[in-house]
Amino acid sequence: MNDMNWLAIYPEILLLVMGCVVALVDLWVTDEQRRPTYWLTQLTLVVVGGMHFAYFNAGVTTYAMQGMVVADPMGHLLAGFACVATLITMVYARPYAASRDMLKGELFILSLFSLLGINVMLSANNFLVIYLGLELMSLSLYALVALRRDHAVSTEAAMKYFVLGALASGFLLYGLSMMYGATGSLTIPEVFDVISKGIPNKGVLVFGVVFVVAGLAFKLGAAPFHMWVPDVYQGAPTAVTLLIGGAPKLAAFAITVRLLVEGMLGLAVDWQQMLVVLSVMSLLVGNLAAIAQTNLKRMLAYSTIANMGFMLLGMTAGVVNDNTLSASNAYSSAMFYVVTYVLTTLGTFGMVILLSRAGHEAEEIKDLAGLARRSPWFALVMTMFMFSLAGVPPTVGFYAKLAVLQALVISGEPFYLWLAGFAVVVSLIGAFYYLRVVKVMWFDASVDTAPLAAPADVRFVMTLNGAAVLVFGLMPGGLLELCKVAIRQALAT
């Protein structure tokens, strides 16, 4: 624990170095030639992602930076997925950014530093490291939202995101400071030990947990801390919206597990009730508000709120199950849900980016009208994404929802059986607005009848994305087993 162990954080070191290299290379790249920095960014993501997956395969948990960082399979697996998500986002974003004078070094540099913040959060074993990674990620995303400085809507969204994000960070920091004051430690395992041996200041600890959960709920976009999600998703450039809705959700899940499960499991009776309220409110607000939306990005934003509510159900199911194996299965179902949700979100916002063109943002649902006539293949792929979000078999979204519901039912508690039934009912309500998009694509007439053109790399990645949603739905066992292994290793340390 006293060793610096630089080997454990080589991926983060490489990511930091390459972010600086991209910034320097960008000084010598003209406005017409942004390809060197783009390919350098993509190469960095491939190498860093490969390192994380290699560390995951090793299956070893090591500590670094004198115990402030933990390099475990859960962190490496989620970090690898975060690299893949950012890589796919860059592929989708390149033609969109080029047509809006956004394909500049700032886009790549801030994306890499945002990913670095995510990596730091995923491997944090200390309250201060969590907050350091959170601020690095958040500040990069604030700047990315405001990247189009001459666009009033984007600037407004950036201001809202910054102000509310600062408020939520204050909540989280205040809660962590109270936990430190009550336990005398900033290291997560030591906080766990102090709480498990006897609660010295129960009132202070519970008060701190309230602020911690509030801060986490904001980062997840769970109701009633969801106010920023629709406005930021709609106002940000679509490429940046995809950056916000993708990899950061993996980091938010990870710090939820680190703080609540690995650090504050002795206070589970208190934070479990808060997670139940957050999940129920998120499912209701997200699904009901999405029905009234005509803007596709706002609809997907409310869909995000509802999906985060479903993920939180898996977290609460882990607390109900006293059996360690059952608890790890519940947490792994939540992890599986958030990973597959990010996979589907990449495709849905990627399709919005694809339909947009210079001078026109394809943000309205009606912009999808007649897509089946313009491009039957892309309409089929988008249908797969909508079916996955709605939880229609055989897509991966169906199995992800089923895994969470199974975790609730296995608990055997009558309240959680009712909670599972409630989740099914609101999911049926939510299916309406997803199927409405499918109806518009296949049956409504289109004003624009020109064939939908896409660069070869975008077409290839979009096809792979759609295929992954279907393949993981038909054969979910492999990915779910990876999540189980990662969670079991995290709970065992």
TrEMBL record:
The organism's place on the tree of life at top rank: Bacteria
Listed transmembrane segments: 6-25, 37-55, 75-93, 105-122, 159-183, 203-228, 240-261, 273-292, 299-320, 335-356, 377-400, 415-435
Enzyme class, first EC level, given as a word: translocase
Family matches, as NCBIfam families: NDH_I_N, PRK05777.1-5
Function noted in UniProt: NDH-1 shuttles electrons from NADH, via FMN and iron-sulfur (Fe-S) centers, to quinones in the respiratory chain. The immediate electron acceptor for the enzyme in this species is believed to be ubiquinone. Couples the redox reaction to proton translocation (for every two electrons transferred, four hydrogen ions are translocated across the cytoplasmic membrane), and thus conserves the redox energy in a proton gradient.
Subunit-structure text: NDH-1 is composed of 14 different subunits. Subunits NuoA, H, J, K, L, M, N constitute the membrane sector of the complex.
This protein's name: NADH-quinone oxidoreductase subunit N
Protein species of origin: Pelomonas lactea
Lineage of the organism: Bacteria, Pseudomonadati, Pseudomonadota, Betaproteobacteria, Burkholderiales
